[in-house]
Amino acid sequence: MTITQARGSPGQAVVELALVLPIFVGLLLAVIGVGSFYGQRQTLIAATAAAARFESVCNAATTGDATTIGQSAMPNITPAPTFTYVLQGTSTAQPHAAGCAIASGTAITVTALAPNVTVKLYAFSISLPLTSSLTVVEQ
Questions:
Q1: Cα separation of 78 and 55, whole Å?
Q2: Confidence grade of residue 1 (pLDDT, cut at 50, 70, 90)
Q3: What is the largest CA-CA distance in the chain?
Q4: What's this model's pTM, rounded to 2 decimal places?
Q5: Is the peptide bond before 115 cis (omega within 30 degrees of 0)?
Q6: Residues 21, 36, 77: CA angle, nearest 5 degrees
Q7: How far, in Å, CA of 95 to CA of 101, rounded?
Q8: DSSP 8-state assignment for residue 65
Q9: Which of 38, 102, 106, 117 is deepest in the core (most CB within 10 A)?
Q10: Are 125 and 37 in contact, with CB atoms under 8 Å apart?
């Protein structure tokens, strides 16, 4: 009994590779891009939390301000995001410095905006805005 092996044309494998390889490379680049963007988003969320944490205890703090603390928590996002602070419905771009006189129990909403976060993938780049917001209560 002999076993024969089915064979296609000699160039069939090369043609199949030429058809499938660009799709796989495109999917791989998309996964890398989404991962990079997600990492930058998580960094912005952590920086917003750091700025909000400072805002919640600025009465007891001895040095610093919320924007400086937030921006130092995300050195890999350029340009540096802007922070806005909403205190009792009044929006301001000014952070509260150490020793602020905010009444205990006051809600403060901290919002960070990175207008042009760029994800670079070899020859391609995409710029997208990122926003993160967090509300804390002054201690």
A1: 23
A2: low
A3: 94
A4: 0.77
A5: no
A6: 145
A7: 12
A8: B
A9: 117
A10: no
